[in-house]
From TrEMBL:
Contains a C-terminal catalytic domain, and an N-terminal region which modulates catalytic activity. One of its GO terms (molecular function) is protein-glutamine glutaminase activity. Its EC number is 3.1.1.61, 3.5.1.44. The gene is cheB_2. Transmembrane segments: none annotated. The modification 4-aspartylphosphate is found at residue 58. It comes from the Bacteria. It comes from Caloramator mitchellensis. It is an enzyme of class 3 (hydrolase). This is Protein-glutamate methylesterase/protein-glutamine glutaminase. May play the central regulatory role in sporulation. It may be an element of the effector pathway responsible for the activation of sporulation genes in response to nutritional stress. Spo0A may act in concert with spo0H (a sigma factor) to control the expression of some genes that are critical to the sporulation process. CDD domains: CheB_Rec, REC_CheB-like. GO terms for cellular component: cytoplasm.
Amino acid sequence: MENKKYNVLVVDDSSFMRKCITALIQKDQRFNVIDIARNGLEAIEKIKKYKPDLVTMDVEMPEMDGITAVELIMKENPLPIVMLSNHTEEGAITTLRALELGALDFFLKSELVKEETNEELINDFLYRLITIVENAKIPTIEKDNTYNEEELIISKKNIDNLIEIIIIGCSTGGPAALQNILPQFQKDINIPILVLQHMPPGFTKSLAERFDKICNLSVKEAEDGEILKEGYIYIAPSGYQTIFKKSLEGKIAFKIEDINSEEILYKPSINVTLNSAAFHFKDKMIISILTGMGNDGLEGCRLAKKFNARIITESEETCVVYGMPKVVYEAGLSDAQVSLQKIYQQIMQFLVK
């Protein structure tokens, strides 16, 4: 049986980039670039005309930029959108905004169009595109406050002192999922929270700064040698592995390392962090695995479960890509599988005496 062809609309104001991206996408015979658009306005019109299966969207364009276009498309004709971003601080900020508005993933243009073709990178690009077009769900999530918030009021006297850290791991669809969860944590929670989000180097600092503006807790990118503090949300820096060590005073600190191994696909890797956390925190840890493709987190959760850590997985109904939570759940490691809207509530139920 012949493979189904997926139609793609390539949106970019640069003729050179349109040609490059089109050539890359059509390396996979399952894709057909049905047309191109030079700005957000053209993109909206051509989406109405062609109804493509996938859109690649530039960020900075004349007449209508990619962020405005994503917002309008997701309101009027929602479909899978992948952002193509520049590797700059401004590019990181705008790309994160696009992900919050409903774009499903992003790639760095500079990496995709290097003079020396990196076949592994191109294969990963195409794999992620095909996974998105075949498996991703368009996020249409609203906060669900049907639970009794009075039952979940947190204070230092009713937090379970046996819990010393909360670790949240996510990939595709993660920034939007985190936006649903992190702002719900209140200032009087006395447990550090570590977030591991798969991203290219340079983007996690912008992610931390963005969440710091909208969260009740302070949010920052984790630093090497930094002692974990209560009341902080830490974002694991991209391009490195985040593990734990004991300081000279006997306190737990971050150790940020550049670990190169063919067996480790992601920087940060959820597995690497959980494997380290399991030995330091044992049963004093809550782990939540959110939306994402692949199986990062499975082996780390397997080890953490041997120490009786509590594990929460996001259910299929709200995952953009039901990959990472699925393998943990199907391995029998999840203590609770709930929708995104209930993740915070479930963490609180594990915390409150």
